Amino acid sequence: MIRFIKGTLAMIENAQEIVIENQGIGYLVSVPLSVSDALPPIGETVFVYTYMNVREDALQLFGFLSRDDLKMFQLLITVNGIGPKAALGILGTLTADDIRYAVVAEDAKTIAKAPGIGTKTAHKLILELKDKINLDDMLPAGEPVSSEPAETAGQANADRQAVQDAIEALIVLGYPKADAAKAVHKVPLSAEISVEELLKASLKNL
After folding, report:
1. Would you say 145 and 190 are in contact if contact means Cβ atoms under 8 Å apart?
2. Which of 120-129, 143-152, 159-168 is the most confident on average?
């Protein structure tokens, strides 16, 4: 299984296909539009996390800039009726967190913005993924502040608890769960931030 490819961007076949050269071999990789927009110039180094899809008549590589996008892609293709191409289209339109928020909020309209995804398929996606999406996956953009490895793990747990507490407080105040998670996610974390401070900052995002 090819988990990632690092090499020279040799060609851009079209908006969703690139060729990466590594040790004299050109790998054709299908990518979402979000990757195409972030590519370096041809001839420069590129790194993508990959998923290899095995079919009777072909081997296909799908590439992503982050492990989170790869993880979401693998989750999307577990939905009955959504294949790799459709999942790629969804990730080209929505971020991984956008998808999580939409699933938690049962927002089929947002998911249906992706090409080839109708309202019926969007509802099916929500139904099949709602028990697999956890609000804990929606981590804030800020990184835990710590100088020691042991402290980093403890700080990460503290950050996660603060995030969960702030989200639950917003839900109690009457905000939808997805909106609450999204508002908290926008607040950069620091080692000193309290739940109260996180909650106040989150309210400004609503």
Report:
1. yes
2. 120-129
Distances (CA, A) of 77 to 41, 51, 65, 195: 30, 11, 18, 36
Report CA 205 to chain centroid distance, whole Å. 21
SS3 label, residue 100: helix
Residue 149: which residues within 8 A CB-CB, separation 6 or more? none
Query: Among candidates 74, 67, 112, which has minimal Cα distance to 94?
Result: 112
Tokens of 179: 């909106």
Are the CB atoms for 73 and 88 separated by under 8 Å? yes
d(CA 19, CA 46): 10
pLDDT the model gives residue 135? 59
Helix (H, G, I), strand (E, B) or coil at 82: coil
Tokens of 135: 């609000």
